[in-house]
Backbone:
């Protein structure tokens, strides 16, 4: 029985490899300035591992949308200043509301 030992190597030019010992520490240092941006009192930003959650709260969907766009422009400017990008394919929006929808009646 033979085993093939395959060794993969890659030069890291920025950031650090996922799962590395210093990865979480570097992430904390790097994203600390993002988490300390001045957001409105209707906004809260939460970080978990390498994910960021932006919460906005308002009385109407339109107002929530406006607040979120203002806050996202701050985050976008921060990313540009820090020469980093967020993956659009992994970014999601979710609306949570207490307003009840009227069900459409099929004609």
Residues:
């Amino acid at each position: 029985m033979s085993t093939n030992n395959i060794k993969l190597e890659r030069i890291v030019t920025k950031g650090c490899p996922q799962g590395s010992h210093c990865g979480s520490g570097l992430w904390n240092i790097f994203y600390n300035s993002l988490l300390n941006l001045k957001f409105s009192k209707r906004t809260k930003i939460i970080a978990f591992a390498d994910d960021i959650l932006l919460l906005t709260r308002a009385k109407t969907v339109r107002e929530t949308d406006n607040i979120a766009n203002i806050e996202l422009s701050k985050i976008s400017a921060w990313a540009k200043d820090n020469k980093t990008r967020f993956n659009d394919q992994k970014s999601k929006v979710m609306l949570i509301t207490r307003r009840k929808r009227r069900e459409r009646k099929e004609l």
User: Anything to note?
Assistant: The chain has a mean pLDDT of 82. The first strand starts at residue 43 and ends at 48. The first helix runs from residue 23 to 35.
